[in-house]
Design brief:
The complex is a heterodimer of chains A (112) and B (114). With 112 residues, chain A is mostly beta strands. Chain A is 0% helix and 57% strand. Chain A has no helices and eleven strands. In chain A, strands 2, 4, 5, 9, 10 and 11 form a six-stranded mixed beta sheet that branches. A five-stranded antiparallel beta sheet of chain A has the order 1-3-8-7-6, with no helix packed on it. The N and C termini of chain B lie far apart (36 Å). Chain B has 114 residues and is an all-beta fold. In chain B, strands 2, 4, 5, 6, 9, 10 and 11 form a seven-stranded mixed beta sheet that branches. A four-stranded antiparallel beta sheet of chain B has the order 1-3-8-7, with no helix packed on it. Classes of the chains: A mainly beta (112), B mainly beta (114).
């Protein structure tokens, strides 16, 4: 079964607006990561947040982590058309052998 | 650096055929892995390797074989293709100590099994 579940499955906004997507997971983690996938391409690492961190920023990205609720959110501020992509969370579960577990993704469409 | 290179980009097979998906990285990464991506399923781990000569199974290994004879290459073999193996396949790599913190992905191989 999937560890991470993103919400919403799809999101459509206009350029300049903020985009928020959420990830819920089931077990204890060492860290949680967000990746972006442009259509027809591989995934690209965006940002990592460790289990002892609550918030992290990178450029227009803001990630929060609530380990008590087993959830994370990714905020993209001032969205651009180039942000159109699918976004995946990935969790490094404690006690597992050598894998990251990916969620099902949120498809973001940013229109002009 | 080319990063992670996957070949071919597209492949059509008939049921029962075998083939090898190639993956090569030029970053001297110890960790390499194969994922498959299916609609609504996210990415699922097939096999992974933590170094040359060391491989292990992931979440969905059945029907696939791997080997790791060099640090650079990690081919994925489909022994007898089935329609259920129609998917997009991604190879990913990372360095040893930090592999769980950032994966580098290839651009994928889209496989159709008829």
């Amino acid at each position: 079964s999937q560890q991470g579940e993103e919400d919403p499955q799809a999101l459509s906004i206009q350029e300049g607006e903020n985009a928020t997507m959420n990830c819920s997971y089931k077990t204890s983690i060492n860290n949680l990561q967000w990746y972006r996938q442009n259509s027809g391409r591989g995934l690209v690492h965006l940002i990592l947040i460790r289990s002892n961190e609550r918030e992290k920023h990178s450029g227009r990205l803001r990630v929060t982590l609530d380990t008590s609720k087993k959830s994370s959110s990714l905020l993209i501020t001032a969205s651009r058309a180039a942000d159109t992509a699918s976004y995946f969370c990935a969790t490094d579960e404690t006690g597992t052998a050598s894998k990251l577990t990916f969620g099902t993704g949120t498809r973001l469409q940013v229109t002009l | 650096n080319a990063g992670v290179t996957q070949t071919p980009k597209f492949q059509v097979l008939k049921t029962g055929q075998s083939m090898t998906l190639q993956c090569a990285q030029d970053m001297n990464h110890e960790y390499m892995s194969w994922y498959r991506q299916d609609p609504g399923m996210g990415l699922r781990l097939i096999h992974y390797s933590v170094g040359a000569g060391i491989t292990d199974q992931g979440e969905v290994p059945n029907g696939y074989n791997v080997s790791r004879s060099t640090t650079e290459d990690f081919p994925l073999r489909l022994l007898s293709a089935a329609p259920s193996q129609t998917s997009v396949y991604f190879c990913a790599s990372s360095w040893g100590a930090g592999w769980r913190e950032k994966l580098f992905f290839g651009s994928g191989t889209q496989l159709s099994v008829l």
